[in-house]
Amino acid sequence: MSVVRWLIEFGQLGLSFLGSLLGWVLIAPIASIVPKRKDWVAVIGRQHGKFLDNAKHFYVQACSSEPGLRFVFITERSDTFALFAGSSHEVLRYPSVRSIWFLMRCASAVVDSTDWIRHLRRFFLMRARVLQIWHGVGFKRIELDKWRNEAGRYRWFSNRRVFSLRILFYRITGRLVRYAAVCSTSTFYRDEVFSKAFLADRFPITGYPRNAFAATTGSKLLWWNVDQTLAEANGWEFVFKFHPSERNASRIQGRHLHVCHPDSDVYPLLPKSHALITDYSSIYMDYLLLDRPVLFFIPTADTYLQADREVQFDISTMMPGPVASDWPDLLASLTRQLLQDGYASERERVRRMAFDDQSQEAAVSRILDLIR
Fold it and tell me: Cβ-count burial of 172 within 10 angstroms (0-12 exposed, 13-18 middle, 19+ buried)?
């Protein structure tokens, strides 16, 4: 099975290399001479264009606050495309001719992951200014910093010579990009995370659009792609939002247990909750802005850190809440936290470090300033 897996991965690398040759030789030269429209902005969501996270919340707020610019959401997904049916808001299905033409003509693009480079989009956006607003501020290593510090069986990828060959391959295939700006939430994250993980002309501290909890409450777009049946709490109701790669979520059943669709947007639900339980997900950093209890459930901490991905900081200094390793301990900690919150000062310390006491409601206006 391992031989088959390696053959598949090798074949994918070959296809990626051939696609990049097509991009550099044919698409990039054409895209480079096509005149750019400074008032056109492409917004590309992660995982093939899902309507969630920072890309969604930027689009929602930008469409209503900047009428002088044309914002178009680019997606490969039929479900995302269907959300916009009958709406005046613009969405284009990639790789349609209209979407390709828009990508070649827009002067700016806003993205929140590295998925936007796939399927030749990176080459159609040649000469466009790409702003990266990423999808989390946590403590896991990302991008360049991760490549230099791989964990487990992939550690040999970080060998100096292998790393150099890897970077060369990423440059050739378009995987490694220099951004016009990579937006951060604080001085700490700019200096300690993003400037080490990305190549960019600027690393402005803008805040994150998804954390503007009060700025978009009246927008209908905000509630697109949200499990709205879960919006009201009633006593102790547990709302589960798993990573899209989780395979066992469908087995969870119970009168007071609710499972969100893994591709849905959970951020509009956060202000309606009373506490957050998470593992290593960076969502807890954003939740600190609500100043409510955060609990960490980590039954396999050693396995994750050794085999999956290393962290950049001492996690004991980054987790402002109780850490549980089993379900009974977690429930006991949750009861204590809801009755008597003992981590308020720790949450404030980490929140100040992550967000510089900066208003998140102004995040989109700061990003729009960069585009202008």
Answer: middle
- Summarised one tens digit per residue, pLDDT across range 76-98 is 999 999 999 988 899 999 999 99
> Tell me: the pLDDT tens digits for 27-67?
999 999 999 999 999 999 999 999 999 999 999 999 988 88
DSSP-derived secondary structure letter, 265? -
For 340, the 3-state DSSP assignment is coil
Distance, in Å, from the CA atom of 153 to the CA atom of 322, rounded to the nearest integer, reads 31
d(CA 173, CA 165): 12
- pLDDT, tens digit, 9 for 90 and up, residues 135-168: 888 778 899 999 999 888 888 888 999 999 999 9
CB 329 within 8 A of CB 336: no
Residue 300: strand, helix, or coil: coil
Secondary structure (3-state) at 160: helix
Name the 3-class secondary structure at 312.
Answer: coil
Entry pTM: 0.82
